[in-house]
Amino acid sequence: MNRVGPNELADFLASHEDVIVVDVREPFEHEICALPVGDAEHVLIPMASLPMGIEEHVPDKARTVLLYCHHGVRSFHAGAFLDHLGYEAVHDLEGGIDGYSIDADPSVPRY
After folding, report:
1. What CA–CA distance (Å, rounded) separates 28 from 33?
2. pLDDT confidence of residue 79
3. How far apart are CA 18 and CA 13, in angstroms?
4. Which of 36, 38, 66, 84 has its CA 20 to 30 A from that of 6?
5. How many domains does the chain have?
6. Could you tell me if residue 52 is inside a domain?
7. Residue 33 pLDDT level (bands cut at 50, 70, 90)
């Protein structure tokens, strides 16, 4: 698994055409804010649903996956799980959406 820093996110998304961004937070958290991902596919799969939902949403294990959560802890663990399942291009947003709001885009609400 690779880590993507908050200030690297825009470049990362621009340089990966078939990336899927996976939010592993809970629905109530996603309602507060979500990462600005432009044209990238974005899906909410809460951490508890990840074992059942990831292969449904991302059947191609070679596809680039970017995971994020609130502070980066859940997404880090989710990334380790995806590595274990054989996903080949797993990335994690370091510091989560909170770190992104602090370091890269203060317009993203914090909670």
Report:
1. 9
2. 98
3. 9
4. 84
5. 1
6. yes
7. very high
- Write the pLDDT tens digit of every residue in 48-84: 999 999 999 999 999 999 999 999 999 999 999 999 9
Check which CATH number belongs to the domain holding 98 and give it. 3.40.250.10
* Alpha-carbon distance values, 34 to 81, 92, 111 (Å): 22, 15, 12
Buried b (16+ CB within 10 A) or exposed e, 76-105: bbbbebbeeeebebbbbbbbbbbbbbeebe
* Full residue range of the structural domain in which residue 59 is found: 2-103
For residue 39 the two structure tokens come to 């044209």
Q: Is 56 exposed, middle or buried (0-12, 13-18, 19+ CB in 10 A)?
A: exposed
Please name the residue that has the structure tokens 């880590």: 3
**pLDDT exceeds cutoff 90 at 17:** no
